[in-house]
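Regression check, CO-5-methoxybenzimidazolylcobamide case 226:
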Amino acid sequence: MNELVEKIGQCVERGKVNKSSPYPNDMKGMDGADEFTRQALEAAVGPDAILQVCNEGMQRIGARFSRNEVFVPELLMAAKAMHAVMVHLEPFFKTGSIRAKGKFVLGTVAGDLHDIGKNLVRMVIEGNGWEVIDLGVDVKPAKFLEAIKNTPGCVVGLSALLTTTMVGMSKTVQEIKAQFPATNVIVGGAPLTMEAALKMGADGYSPDPQGAVAFLDKVSVANITQ
Ligand code: B1M
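Current build output:
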């Protein structure tokens, strides 16, 4: 049974979605995340054990991405495999058998339409057990504020790809901090640096999705122990 669960984690890490998926080449024709998850649930493996092994698979691929050992396509395939697992686990989330680690409100800031990186961040964070409320692109400060009001205890993530929209990002962070000073905010995106993030009043910055997961895990532990 353990072997079956391990295989799910490997499929997530390798981006092997299902048997008919031709990717990755060396796993062609083999069962994938979809089939192994079905088999595991039929063998009475708990959904939490499956989620745990998926999270570990996502963490491994996220870490390899951070080290430039794999690139965006590999990360996208891993996210797709994770999604195939989540389709089976969704009913357990709905009945409350599995609890999300917390809620993360995410969006690309006003004036910015780039969402490929933001979507990767969403998928990796979801894959690590958080519920993500994705506000999309070109998100005005008022929309973030409304979402925070409706999602008590959430952490907020802002993405920007344009140097010009970093100005608006700063305004959004300041408005969030003025109205919800206890809300943790992390920013990311190609033009950002830790220095710029701290200057605009954000609590954290990450150059990649895995760093955002590490930030979320850190602030959620801090919230629990307060
Ligand atoms: Co645009 N674009 N673009 N573009 N585009 C860039 C960003 C640019 C660098 C290209 C260039 O000139 N070399 C340049 C910005 C220059 C600057 O300001 N410094 C640029 C420009 C100028 C523009 C337009 C103004 C072009 C024009 O119309 N004249 C225009 C602006 C539109 C707008 O937003 N208002 C525009 C439009 C577009 C498209 C619509 C065509 C398309 C976007 C499609 C889409 O996203 N759905 C597009 C694309 C694809 C790019 C490039 C080619 C690729 C961006 C991308 O998706 N990278 C880009 C050039 C480049 O990067 N080579 C470029 C892959 C993605 C995985 O990386 O988004 O950095 P990234 O996300 C990373 C990290 O940054 C991090 O994790 C991700 C994964 O590692 N991350 C976070 C991101 N958000 C995070 C949040 C976090 C943590 C980490 O916590 C919350």
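Comparison notes: The pocket of CO-5-methoxybenzimidazolylcobamide is lined by residues 72, 111-118, 120-121, 157-159, 161-164, 186-191, 206, 208-209, 212 (CB under 6 Å). Residues 126 and 187 are 17 Å apart (CA to CA). No diff flagged against the previous build.
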